[in-house]
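Hey, I was hoping to borrow your eyes for a little while. I've been puzzling over a protein and I'd love to understand its fold better. The fold is given in discrete form, as structure tokens running alongside the sequence. I'd be grateful if you could look everything over and explain what you see. No rush at all, and the record is pasted right below.
>
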Amino acid sequence: MKIFTIILFFTSLSYSQITKNNWLVGGSGNFKTTKTEKLSEGTKPYDERTIFSISPNVGYFFYDKVAGGIGLSYTYDNIYNEKYQYFGVGPFVRYYFLKTDKQINLFLQGNYYYYQGGGKTQDGNDTGKFHNNGYGCKAGTAVFLNSSVALELTLDYISNKLNSELKENTIMIGIGFQIHLEK
């Protein structure tokens, strides 16, 4: 009897809160593999490297299955024995493809970021400050663990123009949580 009650409880839940006037609060952690492209002669590309980032966000559902909001980003990068840290901020728009009551839903997100940061060499010297702009898209699966919390698995693409000589294209795998708050 207890098992039947538990099954009945979980199957009666409305899994998602992806409807108009609800809020989206969460974030993700990403593992990136990056390869830079040389845009002019005489510049040395970074080669391939591994980067770690954390990205919190907050959004609002303006329509059923459509949310817009703002995201933040913190990234740590170690390349050529130089350690860089940079922060980003920018808007995003997200669309969920399946019906609003599905426990598993697919989404696509577009975003823009403005980044600023700096780094240190192996012997502690400052590498200087930098800033750049980037845009990207994220496709993923949201698995609703209950009526408000979703676990997300994503594949992200980001393109940054680092300066007039280097362009960086990044593909990353991410995992995150989103909390869907009803108004």
